[in-house]
Write a structure and sequence with these properties.
N-terminal domain of TfIIb, 2 domains, 7-stranded mixed β-sheet, about 35% strand, binds S-adenosylmethionine
């Protein structure tokens, strides 16, 4: 599967409706609500570093990783000036960093890229091992409802001045996988368009499945919220935020 390669160059432009500062403030509120004042924070699947920017600006010691070199290279250029950041290329399935953190965060449905329960168990075990006792694991997922009913089996088209892209999606109920075929047409300076495509797959998880794997690993006090709030998720919540303590 090719994913987050050429798309990395246009990711920030296409995500311009996402308010990463508010997302950061939500995470900061979670720290406060759960009574931790983290110093060492690990960010998993940091992408182009949009949340990383605010975490660094706040003054935490940040370690961030992603497995896409193309995403990391955008992040690197964006975050060059921060001395409190380590940026790494790692895979969340088997990452190894020789230290433990006060908190580990992952946002924007990166966890949905883990396609089965066995791999998700390994990711959560690894997160657990990299957390200090009392530390918090904070992450969100695209909800089962969003992937199966809203995105799944739908086609979206976005027509901007210099980017035209078609997003065709298929949801397979037999394995709960949502496949996205993204077809990009990008206008060059000379007015011609270049075309490339990417295929992404996200796994739809029920809240109970995630909770049960977190518990199996040893996490305690697991909370589920409709993202950006502290309300319990509804049947039609599109993003679910989890908080779990080691
Ligand atoms: C939707 S993007 C989110 C990026 C970033 N967190 C943000 O908020 O903009 C998903 C990210 O997950 C990364 N990713 C997917 N699977 C991964 C894995 N197994 N290990 C590390 N990163 C992964 C992708 O490269 C991509 O940058």
């Amino acid at each position: 599967m090719n994913c987050y390669e050429k798309f990395a160059l246009y990711y920030d432009e296409l995500m311009d409706d996402v308010d990463y500062e508010s997302w950061f403030l939500y995470i900061k509120n979670i720290f406060k609500r759960f009574d931790i004042e983290p110093r060492e924070v690990l960010e998993i699947a940091c992408g182009t570093g949009n949340l990383t920017y605010y975490l660094c600006k706040e003054g935490y010691n940040i370690t961030s990783f992603d497995m896409s070199e193309d995403m990391l290279s955008i992040a690197y250029n964006k975050l060059l000036s921060f001395k409190n950041l380590k940026l790494l290329k790692q895979n969340m399935k088997d990452f190894k960093i020789n230290k433990q953190f006060d908190s580990i965060v992952s946002i924007c449905d990166s966890i949905n890229y883990i396609l089965n329960e066995d791999e998700l168990l390994k990711v959560f075990e690894n997160v657990y091992n990299h957390l200090k006792y009392g530390g918090l694991f904070i992450f969100d997922i695209n909800s089962y409802y969003k992937l199966s009913e809203i995105i799944g089996n739908n086609t979206f088209v976005e027509d901007r001045d210099d980017i035209y892209y078609v997003w065709q999606n298929y949801f397979d109920k037999s394995n709960n996988l949502a496949q996205f075929y993204l077809d990009f047409f990008i206008k060059n300076d000379d007015g011609n368009y270049i075309r490339f495509d990417e295929e992404h797959i996200e796994r739809a998880y029920q809240i109970e499945e995630i909770e049960s794997i977190l518990k199996e690993v040893g996490f305690k006090g697991i909370k589920k919220y409709e993202a950006f709030t502290f309300n319990i998720p509804k049947n039609n919540s599109e993003r679910i935020n989890f908080v779990a303590r080691k």
